[in-house]
Structure formats: C-alpha cells, structure tokens
Amino acid sequence: MNQRIVIDTNVYVSRFLRPTSVPGRAVERVLTADLPLISRATLLELKAVLLRDKFARYVDRSAIEPFLNYISETAEQISTVSTIHACRHTQDDKFLELAVDGKADLILTGDLDLLALHPFRGIAIITPMQYLAED
Q1: What are the Cα distances from residue 110, in Å, to 23, 63, 65, 125?
Q2: What's the rounded Cα separation, in Å, for the pair 51 and 24?
Q3: Where does the chain have alpha helices with state H?
Q4: Nearest CA to 72 among 92, 42, 97?
Q5: Are 109 and 131 in contact (CB under 8 A)?
Q6: What does DSSP assign to residue 38?
Q7: Would you say 106 and 6 are in contact if contact means Cβ atoms under 8 Å apart?
Q8: Do 21 and 58 meet the contact criterion of CB atoms below 8 Å apart?
Q9: How many domains does the chain have?
Q10: Average model confidence (pLDDT) for the chain?
Q11: CATH of the domain at 46
Q12: Cross-sheet strand order for the sheet of 76-77
C-alpha cells in the first residue's frame, strides 16, 4: 500500500544537494514507491530555500526548475484549509497543515521541532533513516 507522505523542505534540500545521502535515498523511495504530498506553501518554500545565496556554490541553478517540476509532477498537490499552531517555529506549521488536510500517513523530517510532535493527530513524524528502515 502506498503511504501518503509529507516531506519537509530540509529533506528535499538534502536530496537535491546529495542524492545518495540518507535523505536523498528516502526522497527517491517516496517518489517511486509512495505518494508525496505538496502544497503551494511547501513548494514555494522549497524553491526559495534552493535559491538562497548560501547554496549558490553547491547548486547548479539550472537544475532547480527541473527538480521542482519533478516533485510537482510526482506529488499530489493538496489545497490546505486547516490552520494549525503547534510548532515552536511557526513556519513549520505548514507541514502539519499539509499532513492533516492531505490525510498523510507520515511526515518525513530531520527537524527536531517537528520530530518532537510525533505522533501528531495520529500522523507519524519520522526521520529519513527511520523511513528507510521500514520494510
């Protein structure tokens, strides 16, 4: 059964910068074996982060749009309607909103503030390593 999975921006960025890393392998597994969920807010954040100056020397900027298109075409786009205030960093609430409105099975993240909320309304919040350890 395909799991419905929200992938945090930090995991996508790790995949973009280092495709063979643990987060990179986890993202590829989600994209091929499960169903990633995205929202307009999470996709915009991913694009903004990848375009940050601090990544300029590590990122081939011409590869950003194809990567974002790949994510957009593979993922199910969810229109979020919930307003959740549960994270210490309010900018992370968008992942919880996406997970709730998208009826996600889990959130994949390396963010300790999100991981501390595990489980959130019955939705597992796990690391890429934990996800890869699942059968």
Answers
A1: 9, 23, 24, 10
A2: 19
A3: 9-17, 22-33, 40-50, 64-74, 93-101, 112-115, 128-133
A4: 42
A5: no
A6: E
A7: yes
A8: no
A9: 1
A10: 94
A11: 3.40.50.1010
A12: 76-77, 35-38, 4-7, 106-108, 124-126
3-state class of 24 per DSSP?
helix
Does residue 1 surpass a pLDDT of 70?
no
Cβ–Cβ < 8 Å for 30, 36: yes
3-state secondary structure of 4: strand
The Cα–Cα gap between 10 and 118 comes to 17
Q: What is the mean pLDDT of residues 12-20?
A: 94
Spatial separation of the C-alpha atoms in residues 71 and 122, rounded to whole Å: 25
* The pLDDT value given to residue 58: 80
Q: Which domain holds residue 94?
A: 4-133
